[in-house]
Amino acid sequence: MQGEPRAAPTLATLCGRVLFAGRWVLAPIHVGLFAALCLVAAKFAVALVQAVAGLPGMATAGLIVAVLKLVDLALVADLMLMVMIGGWENFVAPIIPAAGGARLPWLEHLDFNAMKIKVVGAMTVISGIDLLDTVLEIHAVPKQDVLWQAAIFLIFGIAGVLLGWTDRLGGRHDGTAPEP
């Protein structure tokens, strides 16, 4: 059958190929997120050095605030890494570990729905840490700012619960498709 001419691709086929190749537009975005992750790591290092340097004269509340800021940066970094790896795996190409390297088991369960719930969960925790930081400094913060932070925290929490609930209703909570 080598001599048979090929049928010309249809417009729909060509459009599909272009759209499928368009996933590579995401590659520089994910590389940019890696650069931003390096910036967060640098900010973490600076905050850690400042906390250690100020420790001798630091009050307990100041230490708690410093630790919360470090936890906040760590959560942001975790969130960025999850979005980078999960987004790459889901939309660009599979991540192939280096020779002899083991594949991360959690990566196989990080589909778009799971990633969406984890992102909202991380945002809720980050918002909660910021709210706790504000409560520790309540004497210096306007009441309206505290109320806004509390409202944002509640909104993130409710959004997380609703996303988890809709995911469970869809039957995707264990990686299975919903039954017809």
Describe this structure in words.
The protein is 69% helix and 0% strand. The protein is mainly alpha-helical and 180 residues long. The chain has one domain. Helix 2 packs antiparallel against helix 3 (60-92) and helix 4 runs antiparallel to helix 5 (143-169). It is elongated and about 85 Å long. The model has no long low-confidence stretch (mean pLDDT 84).
Count of distinct strands: 0
The percent of residues in helical segments reads 55-70%
Query: What is the global morphology?
Result: elongated
**Structural class designation:** mainly alpha
Q: Roughly how many Å is the radius of gyration? A: 23 Å
Number of helix segments? 5
Give the distance, in angstroms, between the N- and C-terminal Cα atoms: 42 Å
Number of separate structural domains: 1
Provide the low-confidence segments as ranges: none
Biggest β-sheet strands, sense, barrel: none
Topology:
Blueprint: H1 11-21, H2 26-54, H3 60-92, H4 112-136, H5 143-169
Helix pairs in contact: 2-3, 3-4, 4-5
